[in-house]
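Folding Problem: From Residues to Backbone Shape
Fields: amino acid sequence; protein C-alpha cells
RECORD BEGINS BELOW THIS LINE
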Amino acid sequence: MTIRTIIAVDEGPAGDAALAWATRRAQWVKDPLLLVHVVDESTLVPGKVLDPARFGRAGALLDAAAEQLRGTVPGIDVRTEVISGDVVPSLIALTAADALLVIGENTRGSVRSSIGWSAGVRVAAHATGPVAVVPAEVTEDRRGVVVGVDDTDQCLDVAEIAALEALATGQPLQVVHAWMAPNMWLDTFPLDEEFMAFLAEPHQRLLDDIVGVLRGRHPSLDVTGRAVHGIPAQCILDADPLPALVVVGTRGKSLFQRLRLGSVSRDLLLNLDVPAIVVPTATVITTRESAADTARAGS
C-alpha cells in the first residue's frame, strides 16, 4: 500500500476523470494528496520562455481542484505544485514505490499519431512506482477489484497490493489467472475436454494457492478466484462482475522490456474501459527487500 497519492490535474475529460477517481478513493484512503499540473515546454520555440500567465492559470486550476477535494473530503491533506517541462518525463519523475500516481486517459485503445503511445501507457511503461490510469469514460455499472496473476515469483506481491486496495476501499477482490495453450501443442493435440482439463490443472492449483494465501492474510476480505483459458487482458477486463478497478504487474526489467510494458499490461491499457493500477515488478521486489533489510537490522 502506498503512503501518498499524486494526481495529475489538467483541463478536459482526462484531468476530470483522474481527479474524480482520486476524490472517491480519498474518502476511503486518507493518504496525503499532491495535485500537480505540468506546464508543457515540449512545443516551446528555442530561445523563447513560457508565458507567465500560463503558470497563473495552472495555479488557479490546482487551487480550484484542491478546494473541491477539501470540500468533498474534509480534513484531507492536500498540496499543489506547478511543474514546467515535457509532460510525460515530468510525470515519470514523480513516480516512486511509496506513491500512487493518478493520470487520466482521454481515449480508449488509442495510439495518438502525434506522440506515439498515449500518455498513460508511456508513463506506466517507465514508472518506478504504481500508476493508476483512469479512462475518461467508464462503461456500465461496476464493482469490486480484479487482479491479474501469472506464474512469476512476484504475482503474489501484486495480488497483495490489490488486496490492500480492496480492503481500504471496502470492495471484494477477484483473482484472475488467465492462461493459453502453447501454439505448438495446438497443432499436435486436439483440444478436447480431457486434454484441456489436463492443461488447466496446474493453473487451477496456482490460483488456489494465491487465493488461499490472501484469505489467510486478510480474513475479513471477500476473495474469490478464477482460472480461465483465454487472452489474459481480455479475461481481466471482462471479469464477472465487471470490475471497478483492475490491478496488474509488469515484467519488464531491461529498458527495451520496460518500453514494451509486457503484453498483458500493454494490451489492457490499450483497451482500457475501467481504472487500472499498473505495478512495476521492480516496485514489489524493492519494497519486499527493503522490508526484509529493516527486519534484519532490528533483530
